[in-house]
Specification:
The protein has eleven helices and 19 strands. By secondary structure, it is of the alpha/beta class. A six-stranded mixed sheet has the order 5-2-1-6-8-7, sandwiched between helices. The chain is globular and about 60 Å long.
Length: about 400
């Protein structure tokens, strides 16, 4: 039996799946409209999958700070070693498989993460014209195992997005479709009639729990959903672990929504109570010295991230001369893109109201694409064609983006 390791290297987390190349995977379309061409390739219940924290977070929780450290050769070597050691350890400890039993590895990640994995110089991506060393690294040998990586589109729209386009079969869409992959950055794709427009917005790491006073990735112990009634908060944590360790992206969305609905936050995202502005709103209290409180700065981090995503969508639509009314489906992907409450996300402006009824939560499409390619290695030329044909839209001088960004800051 031949096994292939599929890996999504995210800025915050690493998701891994082991697949058997001689097992036929079925397309799961139960959550999608009948007209959709998208298919998610999943194994049966014996498929192995795992999510771990990216140890490179020691050198920055966001892409820019990570890149600023990676231009230092010694730190770049450490980051390369960290990511490779983490993947190897997960393969051994979590999957209980020997390295030499793998017949191949498929890597999917943003352009920076791919460069760090291969040990490529990242200095060209720090300043204009933002030039990566290689968007399509060749197959390489990693301790006797061949590695294939998803090709990228640009410095800020990487192989993880190409992987999502491939997993969702967006290249086959005849009507306009949007994909938003919300992680440490926000990557956006507009597909119609075989044409692909893409862009990236500096959403910051809030959607993955980064740079929040109580933030953490979507890992066991994270608050991922909650309700507030009569001023008291009822929480749910991943794997029901208590006490909670922190707040992940989906929990942040629900917290902001609930605080607004209960009149604790105003439409501008400000706490109405001076006490909460100073000390934050308590989501969980174990004792007087141990509590998790959402701060005013945490709310602002969400607003910045949300406004950037909405502005990016508006800019892409403007580039294509389309409107929200033209979109037939909106796929929401990312670390929390399988668990968020669509109504709550729309209630605070993350999902446009016009797209609520055509929004589909599709989870980690970067990993899904890597799994699919592991099962169908002959598809690589088609994947490379997707990357080569996609256009990258710059937002640096976009008046549409700037106007929409400020307009969408309110909740």
């Amino acid at each position: 039996m031949s096994k292939v390791l599929a890996v999504d290297i995210g800025t915050t987390t690493i998701a891994l799946s082991v697949t058997d190349t001689d097992r036929v995977y079925s397309a799961c379309e139960s959550d999608l409209p009948a007209s959709s061409s998208a298919a998610f390739f999943k194994a049966d219940s014996n498929e192995l999958a795992s999510v771990i924290e990216n140890p490179q977070r020691l050198y920055g929780s966001d892409v820019i700070s990570r890149m600023n450290n990676a231009i230092k050769p010694q730190l770049a070597k450490k980051m390369r070693a960290l990511i490779r050691d983490a993947i190897k350890t997960a393969a051994a400890d979590r999957f209980h498989i020997g390295w030499q039993s793998l017949s191949g590895i498929v890597i999917s990640g943003n352009t920076l993460m791919t460069h760090l994995f291969y040990g490529l110089d990242v200095s060209g991506m720090l300043t204009a014209p933002f030039t990566p060393v290689d968007l399509s690294p060749e197959i390489c040998d990693w301790d006797g195992v061949p590695v294939t990586s998803m090709p990228g589109i640009s410095a800020f729209v990487g192989g993880d997005i190409v992987s999502g386009i491939y997993a969702l079969k967006l290249i086959d869409e005849s009507s306009p479709v949007l994909l938003a992959d919300l992680g440490t950055n926000g990557e956006l794709v507009l597909a119609v009639g075989g044409k692909i427009l893409s862009t990236s917005v500096a959403a910051g790491p809030a959607f993955e729990g980064g740079n929040l006073s109580i933030g953490m990735p979507a890992l066991p112990g994270a608050i991922d959903s909650l309700t507030i009634k009569n001023g008291f908060c009822r929480i749910h944590t991943i794997e029901h672990q208590l006490p909670p360790k922190g707040l992940c992206g989906s929990g942040l969305i629900e917290a902001v929504y609930e605080l607004k609905q209960n009149g604790i936050l105003d439409a501008h995202g400000s706490f109405l109570s001076g006490q909460y502005r100073e000390n934050g709103f308590p989501l969980y209290i174990q004792n007087i010295d141990q509590k998790l409180a959402l701060s005013q700065e945490d709310v602002r981090a969400f607003q910045v991230a949300k406004a950037a995503v909405r502005a990016g969508i508006d800019a892409l639509l403007s580039e294509a001369r389309l409107s929200l009314a033209d979109i037939s489906r909106f796929y929401l992907a990312g670390s929390f893109g399988q668990h968020i409450d669509i109504k709550k996300a729309s209630g605070i402006g993350l999902i446009p109201e016009d797209l609520v009824n055509c929004t589909f939560l599709v989870g980690n499409t970067s990993l899904a694409g890597a799994v699919r390619l592991a099962q169908h290695p002959d598809d690589y030329p088609a994947v490379a064609k997707i990357a080569a044909a996609a256009s990258s839209v710059s937002l640096a001088d976009s008046d549409i983006f700037k106007e929409s960004y400020f307009r969408n800051m309110d909740l």
